[in-house]
């Protein structure tokens, strides 16, 4: 893997790491049924980096075609309103 996958957009506005985009240093994609951002947290405070520059730190969805060694190999991902990874794809 030559690059780190960026989070290009996140529609989950109730997440404490969403400041007009993902401001978490790194997110983890997992979930039991659907591939979701498990870094999602609802708090009264906002956290993360001072600007929206989030990246995928780990991906636990082994069946996704973009997963290699628990890392996302896609150029970028998008996160839907329900914290679901829209870039998830099964071969």
Automatic annotation (TrEMBL):
Name the UniProt record assigns to this protein: DUF1540 domain-containing protein
The organism's taxonomic lineage, starting at the top: Bacteria, Bacillati, Actinomycetota, Actinomycetes, Propionibacteriales
